[in-house]
Structure formats: structure tokens, C-alpha cells
């Protein structure tokens, strides 16, 4: 075990092998209890190794290259992947929400990430990958979950309220007036996990980034300040992203004449 | 003629595959008239009402109201004059007053003022709902009461044409009779009514149309 200057205790291949040993024990348990999870467990373990080592190598390379174009390119790739995930997680949503998801990720992702790195942490130069990429990852990962939840909920709720939406439209409501209740319910649903995480932070769990910084030898109070900044900004990103994504997409379930397209009237 | 429709056509793409529900349907209804639409279930009676209210995605054909083509009206404005009351009664959360006044919370009526409580109370009284307070939670209304409140809500907005989809299905006789009285009163005041019904027969309708196989025919009176 070598202790580095920064206070991090390095992990060697031996330690990695020990941790894998515990997973092997779980695999044996799975066999004995006929849980049928051995294969999934093995695949997941291998994926954990490969993906995280690949991530480590890529980040090491990116930190070395130190180019603003590379950093921005990686952010755009991350946002595209997030937008794709959102579309997959909202199967009931109308076609064409990939575009609005992408716009949402770009707007909230860039704004919030660079608000944190530029205005609050004041990273020099502005594109320093060591700060920008992990913070963008937290912002995007969390807002992606909130946005997917909000979109999924919007269209599920509209379908379950289709009768009321028709009655409202028949009395002269426009799409916003007819869909408003569902939009509000959905945005609330997207925000609740974030609000709960903020309320429980530090009592129920030590947030991930703070854990990492403390393990890396940072002063716990300094780490707490960082975590507060990130949590607040992530909440803001989730809220802005959910609102934006839902507002950009709910109208797609209505015709140009403002009629809600019920399940029986959808094609394909 | 108050409401006319020409060449209304609609093809359904739902199960069991593409089929023509409305095949160049034309009709005309005069002010003061009550017209019933009958026909086998699944024949497209509800679809016809939705087409007339401009609430049917992908329907084609021309509509006009009091001689003005539908294209002269914004969709919401058209619907506020040719108003459909869907078969499923949709009460919103809140009180009976909230529900009756809901149409005035919409942008399409932003220039109109909502009726005061006195008018609402009188209207409830006129349809046999005098015992219902305006402050009553709408979710606690019976099926028959909710159906009458929903009809009253549509009537109070003062449309020219009312399209009623099975207005008295699942109602007890007393509630159904009150719905008929309301419908008659609306027509007597110069409104036109088109009703889809198959349960009760009464002598009130001036004309009866039959929809089958996508075609609408007049039934001899």
C-alpha cells in the first residue's frame, strides 16, 4: 500500500482481486440457492471492470491533452447519450421527443455545468477537464433521471385523463389548458426525488462526491461546501430540465387544431 | 340552417385495421331542432359528434355554422359554439361552483364575465338540483347529479349547438327526465341539439337519423 502525496491510498491489482473474491462468494451463493443470477453477476462484474477502467484511461488522456474542443465534444457526446436514454425510458411519449430532449440537455447541461465551474468554483482555464467533466456528469446524470421521469409521467397521466382532456377541449380549452394538470403532476414527480435527496443529504447518506473527496484526503468541511454547491446546482438543473422538456414536448400529443390524440387515433 | 356538414369522412386506423367510419356524411340541423342519431354500436355515432365539434384528428369535410364556414373560426371558438358533451362525465377536482365556472377560466372566454352565484343557484334549481349547494365537493355527486351538472356547465356557456353523447345512459329515470327537460328548454331557446342515444325512446326528437356502414340516412318520422 503506497500513500501518495495527496493522501490517497492506492489500490493495486491485489486489492482489486480481493474485491472480486467477494463477488465470487455471492456467485457461489447464487448457485447454491438456485437464484439463477451467476451469469448476470459475472457479466455485470466484467462490465464494471471494463467500463470504469476505460473511463479512467479516457479521462487520463483527456486531462493530458488539455484542449477546450475535446472537453466540449465530450460534453456533447454525454448529452446525446443522456437524451437517448430519456427517449428509451419514456416509451409512451410521442415520436420526436429526441429533439426536445437534446435541446433540454444542451441548454440546462451547459448552463448549469459552466455556472458551477465558471462562477462558483472559478476554474482556470474554463475548460479544465478535471473539474468540468465530473461536474457535467453529475448534472447530466441527475437531470436525465428527473427529465425521463417527468416525460414518462406527463404522457402516462394524459392518457389516463384522456376523458377529462376531451371534455375540457370540447368546452374550448387550448392544449395548455387541457394538459396543465398533467404537466404540473409530472414536473412535481420529476422533482420529488431531488428534493428528497437534498433533505436527506448528510443524515441518511454521505453524498457520492463528498465521499470521493474525503477518501481522496480532502478536508471534510471543504468537501461539504463542494457538495452543497453541486447538490443545489443539480437540483436546479433537474428542475429547469424537467420544466423545459415537458413544455417542449406535451404539445406533440395534440393535433394542430388542439385535439388530444387518444390511443385509438395514433398511427404506428 | 344553423349547422351544416358536407362530405365528412373519417378512416379509423385502430383495430381491426383501416376502415371507413364516416363515408362522405352530410347533414343539416336547424335552430330549435332536436335530432337523434341511432345505429348499431360501433357504427361511429360518437365519431360523428366529434367530427362536428372539430374534435376528431384527421377528419375531412366542410362544416359551417349559421352560414359561416368553420375555417372562419379558431378551433376553440368553434368548440365554444358547437359544444360536445362526451358520454363520460368529467368532473374536475373542486366544488360544484368550480366546475360550473370552469369554462370561464379558459382563454377562449377571457372577455366574458362568469355568471354570479345567483344565476348558478337558479340554474341548479331549474334542473331539479336545488338541494345541491354550490360549495359541495364535486366528487361527492351521484352519477345522475354529475351528469346534470356537466350538462348545465355546457348549457350555461351559451353554445349555438349542443352535441350530446348518450346524455341519459346509466341514469335513473328521474335524472334522465331532467336531462330531457334541459335539452328541450335549450332547443326552445333557439339552440340546436344532436343526440346520440340508443337506450330510451321518447317523442321529443324532431327527426331521427340512422348511421350505419358509414352512411347517414333519415328515418321516417
What does the model show?
Chain A has 268 residues and is mainly alpha-helical. Chain A folds into 2 domains: 1-65, no CATH class; 67-265, no CATH class. Chain A has 9 helices and no strands. Chain A is globular. With 221 residues, chain B is of the alpha/beta class. Chain B has helices at 45-52, 75-81, 96-101, 117-126, 143-156, 173-188; strands spanning 3-12, 19-29, 34-38, 60-65, 68-69, 82-85, 161-165, 192-196, 207-212, 215-219. In chain B, the strands form 2 sheets. Chain B has a 6-stranded mixed beta sheet, sandwiched between helices. In chain B, helix 6 (173-188) links the parallel strand 7 (161-165) and strand 8. In chain B, 28% of the residues lie in helices and 27% in strands. Chain B has 6 helices and 10 strands. At the A-B interface, helix 6 of A face helix 2, strand 6 and helix 5 of B.
Model regions low in confidence, pLDDT < 50 over at least 5 residues of chain A: 1-5
**Mean pLDDT score of chain B, rounded?**
92
Distance between the termini of chain A: 60 Å
Share of residues in helices of chain B: 25-40%
Helix-residue proportion of chain A: over 70%
Could you tell me the number of beta strands of chain B? 10
Structural class, from secondary structure content of chain B? alpha/beta
CA-based shape of chain B: globular
- Please outline the major beta sheet of chain B: 6 strands, mixed
Strand % of chain B is: 25-35%
Total helical elements of chain B: 6
Largest sheet of chain A: none
Task: Outline the low-pLDDT stretches of chain B.
Answer: none
Alpha carbon gyration radius of chain B: 17 Å
* Gross morphology of chain A: globular
Largest interface: A-B, 20 and 33 residues
Rounded to an integer in angstroms, the radius of gyration calculated over CA atoms of chain A is: 22 Å
**Secondary-structure element pattern of chain B, one letter each:** EEEHEEHEHHHEHEEE
CATH class label of chain B: Alpha Beta
- Per DSSP E runs of 2 or more residues, the count of β-strands of chain A stands at 0
